[in-house]
Structures are given as structure tokens and as C-alpha cells.
Amino acid sequence: RLLIPNWKVKKNSPNWSTNLLKTLLYNQNMKAVRASIRYAKALLEFAIENQKEKSVVEEMQNILSLVESSPQLDEALNSPILPGFQKRKIIDEVFPKASKIVQTLFDLLSQNGREGILGGIAYNYIELFDKNQGKVAATVTTAVLLTKDLEKEILLKAAALTPLKIELKNIVDPTIKGGFILRVGDLEYNA
Asked: 140-168 burial string, b = 16+ CB within 10 Å, else e?
């Protein structure tokens, strides 16, 4: 079943092949997102059973930062040209000190040919872990650095959006004319 985003695939249009390719890539990405969430949930459950969820979240933070900072690693893990055993070798070389639980994840990803979603799994694991701990990450984008008073005011606004404990991160964007943009989970508040 194909999910059709905003652009429509019309065979009569001059760009129909480009639109079809966009649609196929969109569907592949959606499948990868859903799969990474499922793997992250299973990993969290397994880590909780083994009482290792805190050490696994540290490993997932490390994995996420490496995947985000190294486009070559992400390209290699998503390459359709590289065979699975080479992708696994790369994972083992980049993460040589992975715990037994994370090694089990690597095994499972290799068996299923899903090495390319490792970064997504790490991201989703961290979010699920925080939610399990009763925390949620919030970002506030402002033109200038927040003062303590303004930070308290924004935390009050954020508390109205979620019952979870909020960990606030300030992003300074000088292009903002005034006010702030608060993002809590998938909710956004503009003021």
C-alpha cells in the first residue's frame, strides 16, 4: 500500500517519473521510521527486563551522535551496494565496546538487513526512555539567550502542554524578530 503525500503521481504530467520516485522514497522512509520505533520499543523492553536501560541509553546517545556527525557512516549503513556482512563489520569496528544487549540489537539488524535504521532506533530509544522516566525534551528558539525569569515563564507554558518533567534546551536564532518558538515533543507553541 502506497502512502501518497502532497505531490500526486499523474502519469500524464511531464514530471510523473520524478513524482513516482518521490512517492516511493517517502514510503520507504515512512517504513523505516515505523520499523525504527518498533525496534526501539523492543530494545527498551528488553533493557528494562535486564535492568540495563540506563546503560543502554548512554550507548544509544553515543550511537546517535556518531551517526549524526558522520554522514559516511550513515551512507555506508544505508548503501544498497554493500553486503550485510560488510555493514556488520563496520558496526563492529565503530562500536567495539557495545554491551551484550546492544550487540544483540546489532545481530538482529544484520539478520534482517536493517542496519540503515540504527540512528533512528537510537533516537527513538532515547525518546522512549525519557518518556518512561517521566521526562520530555523541549526546545525553545529565541532571538537572544534566555534569562532565568524568561526561562521560568517558558517552563510554565511548557508545563501546560504536558504532564511530564520538562528538560528545556535554548536555541538562539537571530533571524527571529521577537517572541519564541517552544517545541515540546510533537507540539509547537509560538509566541
From this structure: bbbeeebeeeeeeebeebbeebeebebee
Exposed / middle / buried, residue 137 (Cβ in 10 Å: 0-12, 13-18, 19+) = middle
Residue 99 DSSP symbol: -
Q: What is the pLDDT of residues 109-123, one digit of tens each?
A: 999 998 888 888 898
Q: What is the pLDDT of residues 59-106, one digit of tens each?
A: 999 998 888 888 888 888 888 888 989 999 999 999 999 999 999 999
Give the burial class of 135: count Cβ atoms within 10 A of its Cβ; 0-12 exposed, 13-18 middle, 19 or more buried.
middle
**DSSP letters of 135-185?**
EEEEEEEESSPPPHHHHHHHHHHHHHH-SSEEEEEEEE-TT--SSEEEEET
Q: Which set of grid coordinates corresponds to residue 22?
A: 518521490
